[in-house]
Automatic annotation (TrEMBL):
GO terms for biological process: phosphorelay signal transduction system. This is Two-component system response regulator. Keywords: Phosphoprotein. Pfam families: Response_reg (PF00072). Coiled coil: none annotated. InterPro entries: Bact_response_regulator (IPR050595), CheY-like_superfamily (IPR011006), Sig_transdc_resp-reg_receiver (IPR001789).
């Protein structure tokens, strides 16, 4: 049996990290949480991450900056963005930069799971025929 995907959650809000962590672990995912983009970039889990779920607005390095940095370094893990401050311009930038989904907090767990399923399918290269 294959190892469950590793999901990295990057959000400066502890309650959001805990809620997503609990949801994803209950569905069998391996989950690591990070309080900042910088902490994630320094972690030993960077290379093994199958999907990043990141807050858009964080101090020092935003979620969009994290995505840009990771792509410039050659990392292709899909991104799902979450935000308490939805803005159409930021949403458009995130999606054009390659984000799979852009969810406004609070969001239903089923919406995050649907985005995660799409992201992981894309990361694996889609379903084989």
């Amino acid at each position: 049996m294959s190892t469950p995907p590793l999901i990295s959650i990057v959000d400066d809000d502890g309650s959001v990290r805990a809620a997503i962590n609990n949801l994803l672990k209950s569905r069998g995912y391996i989950v690591h949480t990070f309080v900042s983009a910088e902490e994630f970039l320094r972690s030993p889990h960077l290379n093994g991450t199958s999907c990043v779920i990141a807050d858009v607005q964080m101090s020092i390095m935003s979620g969009l900056d994290l995505l840009t940095h990771m792509r410039a370094q050659g990392y292709s893990a899909p991104f799902i963005f979450i935000t308490a401050f939805p803005d159409d311009r930021v949403r458009a930038r995130a999606l054009s930069a390659g984000a799979i989904c852009f969810l406004a907090k609070p969001f239903a767990g089923r919406h995050l799971i649907r985005c995660l399923d799409t992201a992981l399918d894309k990361y694996r290269g889609g379903a084989s025929a």
